[in-house]
Design brief:
The structure holds two protein chains of two kinds. By secondary structure, chain A is mainly beta. Chain A is built from no helices and eleven strands. Chain B is mainly beta. Classes of the chains: A mainly beta, B mainly beta. The interface between A and B is medium-sized, with 28 and 27 residues.
Chain lengths: ~110, ~110
Amino acid sequence: DGGITQSPKYLFRKEGQNVTLSCEQNLNHDAMYWYRQDPGQGLRLIYYSQIVNDFQKGDIAEGYSVSREKKESFPLTVTSAQKNPTAFYLCASSPRDRGNEQFFGPGTRLTVL
Amino acid sequence: SQQGEEDPQALSIQEGENATMNCSYKTSINNLQWYRQNSGRGLVHLILIRSNEREKHSGRLRVTLDTSKKSSSLLITASRAADTASYFCATINTGTASKLTFGTGTRLQVTL
């Protein structure tokens, strides 16, 4: 069963702690993306990766870090430097030749207490 | 930065009616896409229209694109309660081949 998985669905952390969100895909897609969504808002791009071992900053990369050591995996770390980390985080992937149609995971809701 | 702005922000209709959502954007694009999001879930791709296309259909969906006005519309015909969701337009801007820029979304409520 192909798709994108994100874990966990809900995550609670204390202020000042780093936290890593998981994103795995078995669609054999080259590109992967991380977005942040705040209530009633659209999606804002945090980081993206078009190929293994390479990634680029999106529009709101400050306070976040990523790695792309495997094609299937693109974990996102929310660091203590992120001023307002409570949000819904969405991971997506896209194949090379589909006009960048993106396939989304179910999301992780992070709450920092 | 968010390029697209959807209009209206919220729309409430009865089952069987048509729903029309509009999207405006600011820069030249390669393509424009529409996505659907059920509450608290990930997004699902609905339809893609390229910059050289003016209209596209998929089932009960009809999308138009007017590049001179930098706008697009999504029409859902014969709506159903299951169409209740948020709908987002997203653009691939010229020169940014792999980045989608999302609008702020339209919340559609379809009542029985």
